[in-house]
Specification:
Elements: H1 22-28, E1 33-38, E2 43-51, E3 57-66, E4 69-79, E5 84-89
Antiparallel strand pairs: 1-2, 1-5, 2-3, 3-4
């Protein structure tokens, strides 16, 4: 008798439904509030408008946060992808 649960795929492979494609996830959160952290440590919070294959990001209603303090408000902002450390979907407010 195997120690694996009955519904698990053979050889420890992840089930197809468990796999998450990053580009699919990003397209699902277009229009949602996000946090974008840059390699420099600067954080932008805004509404995700678009993201491309190079991870270039367009945001609306953007706030720039430096050292935990809001520094500037931008209407629209464009972030070049090679500066992005991560994008995080924020909880809807």
């Amino acid at each position: 008798m195997s120690a694996e649960p009955e519904n698990s795929p053979p050889n420890g492979e992840a089930a197809e439904t468990d796999a998450r494609d990053p580009s699919g996830f990003l397209s699902e959160i277009i229009g949602a509030p996000v946090t974008v952290k840059l390699n420099s440590g600067v954080v932008y919070k805004g509404e995700l408008q678009s993201v491309d294959g190079y991870m270039n990001i367009a945001l609306e209603d953007t706030k720039e946060i430096v050292d935990g303090k809001m520094r500037r408000n931008y209407g629209d902002a464009f972030v070049r992808g090679n500066n992005v450390m991560y994008i995080s979907a924020d909880a809807a407010q």
